[in-house]
Amino acid sequence: MSATTFFTTTQFLLFFFSLTTITLGDANIQGEVLNPPAQGTEKVSHIHFYFHDSLDGRYSIRIAAAPPFYKSATPFGLAAVVDSPLTEGPDPGSKLVGRAQGLYVIASKEEVGLLMDLTYQLYEGKYNGSSISVLGRNAVRNPLREMPVVGGTGLFRLARGYVQAKNYLYNLTSGLAIVEYDAFVMHY
Ligand SMILES: *[C@@H]1O[C@H](CO)[C@@H](O)[C@H](O)[C@H]1NC(C)=O
Ligand SMILES: *[C@@H]1O[C@H](CO)[C@@H](O)[C@H](O)[C@H]1NC(C)=O
User: Fold this and answer.
1) What residue stretch is flagged as signal peptide (predicted)?
2) Tens digits of per-residue pLDDT, 10-46?
3) SS3 for 15?
């Protein structure tokens, strides 16, 4: 065993040691989260739903904007907070299958390009309570956008993957958008 390997193994053991026992004063906190998932059982889930957005407060609301002197063709600098229903079909009244919560900012001066940072929590069956986190660029006028899935919780622990988003309805006047999502998520 080379010195380097030995060192790495020691670090590895220390890592799991620090994971399995966290001592805060007298408390000895241990939990389910401390069991690393079995290796080699990674699977891919395809999740399909519709996301609803409107900046009028129904689904999202503007929380910041660039100062009035700043002019841009896009609302560059706008920030919004989102709590959007995820539905089975495009009709907002169709079955609620989850909620997307988080933030987006318009981070492009040349097109309506959002930086999205949202958690998509699912309500259905065994996925109820599990979530995926999406962080990425969303140029909302492009027919097909892709954003990375950077992690997850519950059944989606250690998730990675991507989502593809397409506008089902996008009305600039009313600010209403219904977006079809296909998420491809690798998880254990
Ligand atoms: C999901 O879990 C919550 C809390 O445990 C429960 O109230 C709700 O009925 C569940 N939803 C579905 C669709 O099973
Ligand atoms: C877009 O929204 C405006 C304002 O609510 C509405 O008058 C118009 O009919 C909508 N356009 C479409 C194509 O739905």
Assistant:
1) 1-25
2) 444 444 444 444 444 544 444 444 455 556 688 999 9
3) helix
- Give φ, ψ of 7 to 5 degrees: -60, -45
Q: Which atom of ligand 1 is nearest to the CA of 125?
A: 14
Please tell me the distance from the alpha carbon of residue 128 to that of residue 155, in angstroms, as a whole number: 9
Q: Is 173 exposed, middle or buried (0-12, 13-18, 19+ CB in 10 A)?
A: exposed
Question: CA separation (Å) from 30 to 17, 103, 156?
Answer: 12, 32, 20
Residue type for 127, please? Answer: Y
Q: What are the φ and ψ backbone dihedral angles of 134, each rounded to 5 degrees?
A: -120, 130
Render pLDDT for 60-110 as a digit per residue (tens, 0 to 9): 999 999 999 998 888 999 999 999 999 999 999 999 999 999 999 999 999
Q: State pTM to two decimals.
A: 0.80
Structure tokens at 83: 């709590």
Domains of the chain, first to last: 43-187 (2.40.480.10)
Ligand 2 atom with minimal separation from the 171 CA: 1
Ligand 2 centroid–CA 150 distance in Å is 35
In the structure, which protein residues have their CB atom closer than 6 angstroms to any atom of ligand 2? 171, 173-174
